[in-house]
Amino acid sequence: MAHSSLYTSAAQKIIVPLDVASEEDAIATLNKLPEVQFWKVGLELFVSCGPSILERLKEQQKRIFLDLKFHDISNTVAGACRAAGRYGADLLTVHATAGRTALKAAVTAAQEGAADSKVEPPKVIAITLLTSLSARDLAFDLKIPVELPEYALQMALLAQESGLAGAVCSPQEAEQLRQVCGDDFLLVCPGVRPQGAAKGDQMRSQTPTQAIQAGANYLVIGRPITTAPDPAQAFQTICQELEGI
Ligand SMILES: O=C(O)c1cc(=O)[nH]c(=O)n1[C@@H]1O[C@H](COP(=O)(O)O)[C@@H](O)[C@H]1O
């Protein structure tokens, strides 16, 4: 059995999503993975059981990525971000394709919400292009006539110009985004798969080592940990991989 102290710095870089449909299942996942410091609450759990899970996480001094991926007109995005800003989450997502006005409004509104409840505002980060989409999807279905890495970069730059703290991108685009957007821009990478793990619906994946070497600040890793026969062991194996870089 590995010692948790060995994995502290690597563990802080890994965000594990609570992609379950009830608070009970979420708590069961939390209990299986006591070493995880940073949890993601996304659409499935938030729509299923609302904000009470955020209180449970805060009681346990966990960090929270509130991944609600807002994508709407600017007035509606602002209202949602103001409400989300009240919860004291660390990170909050909006889609870059909501556009410049909505992105700027998101940051301001999240700050207002946080001030209302006297908590730190969440860092608002933008989805550049979902990691479940391929270059083929971008060109043929979304009809976007721009190469995929360039498109992700342009969405990240739009987010940066609009005052957002960072972006969500696949590890495959992280190196270019890091070079262009600089060291202070947060890069959060889902679509991360340890060598040999099932990709599922992830179309642009890389290993944890590759993602960190490309410049990711945080890795979002779900099923390779949560559906493993021993989730705590799977988490520790990834931490060990990162400690070895
Ligand atoms: O915003 C996200 O976290 C996100 C963006 C994205 O482009 N791709 C993506 O997979 N995610 C999330 O990252 C997690 C990936 O989970 P696994 O594929 O199980 O590792 C899921 O909770 C997704 O909602």
What's the arrangement of secondary structure elements?
Blueprint: H1 8-11, E1 14-17, H2 23-32, E2 38-41, H3 43-49, H4 52-59, E3 63-70, H5 74-85, E4 91-95, H6 100-116, E5 123-127, H7 135-141, H8 148-161, E6 166-168, H9 171-181, E7 186-189, H10 208-213, E8 218-220, H11 223-226, H12 231-243
Parallel strand pairs: 1-2, 1-8, 2-3, 3-4, 4-5, 5-6, 6-7, 7-8
Pathway: Pyrimidine metabolism; UMP biosynthesis via de novo pathway; UMP from orotate: step 2/2
Protein name: Orotidine 5'-phosphate decarboxylase
Enzyme class: lyase
What does the model show?
Belongs to the OMP decarboxylase family. Type 1 subfamily. InterPro entries: Aldolase_TIM, OMPdecase, OMPdecase_bac, OMPdeCOase_dom, RibuloseP-bd_barrel. By secondary structure, this protein is α/β, with parallel strands linked by helices. It has one domain (4-243): TIM Barrel (Alpha-Beta Barrel). Helix content is 46%, strand content 15%. The protein has 12 helices and 8 strands. An 8-stranded parallel β-barrel has the order 1-2-3-4-5-6-7-8, surrounded by 6 helices. Helix 5 links the parallel strand 3 (63-70) and strand 4 (91-95). Helix 5 (74-85) packs parallel to helix 6 (100-116). The longest helix has 17 residues, at 100-116. The radius of gyration is 17 Å and the shape is globular. It binds orotidine-5'-monophosphate. Orotidine-5'-monophosphate binds at residues 17, 19, 40, 42, 67, 93, 127, 130-131, 168, 190-191, 200, 202, 220-223.
